[in-house]
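Work Package 4 report. The design task specified in the project plan requires that, given a folded chain encoded as C-alpha cells, an amino acid be chosen for each position. We show below one input record used in the internal validation round.
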C-alpha cells in the first residue's frame, strides 16, 4: 500500500521567495520564457523546468519571486529529489542570473 506523507515537504526553492527579480534581464535572456502578462518566467534543462511566479511590489517598485516550482516535460509538478542533480544545478544557475 502506498502512503503519502502528510508532512509538508520543504523545497530548496523556498529560500528564493521574496527575493528581488530582474525581469528585464529575464526578458532579454534566451534561456527564459516570460509570460505575456509578466506573471511567470520559466527556464528549461532537458525534460525539466523551473517556473517562477512573479509579482510587482507597487510600494518599492520592483518585481519579486512569489513562488517557485520544478516541473517535468509532461507538466507534472516535482519535488527536489525527483529532479536530477545536474538538471537542478543548471536550472538554478540560469535562475540566479536574473535575481537581484
Amino acid at each position: 500500500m502506498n502512503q503519502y506523507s502528510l508532512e509538508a515537504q520543504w523545497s530548496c526553492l523556498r529560500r528564493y521567495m521574496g527575493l528581488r527579480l530582474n525581469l528585464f534581464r529575464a526578458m532579454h535572456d534566451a534561456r527564459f520564457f516570460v509570460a505575456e502578462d509578466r506573471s511567470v518566467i520559466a527556464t528549461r534543462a532537458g525534460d525539466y523546468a523551473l517556473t517562477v511566479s512573479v509579482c510587482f511590489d507597487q510600494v518599492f517598485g520592483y518585481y519579486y519571486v512569489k513562488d517557485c516550482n520544478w516541473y517535468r516535460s509532461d507538466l507534472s509538478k516535482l519535488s527536489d529529489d525527483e529532479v536530477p542533480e545536474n538538471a537542478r544545478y543548471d536550472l538554478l544557475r540560469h535562475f540566479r542570473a536574473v535575481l537581484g
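The first helix runs from residue 23 to 27. Validation will be extended to a larger panel in the next phase.
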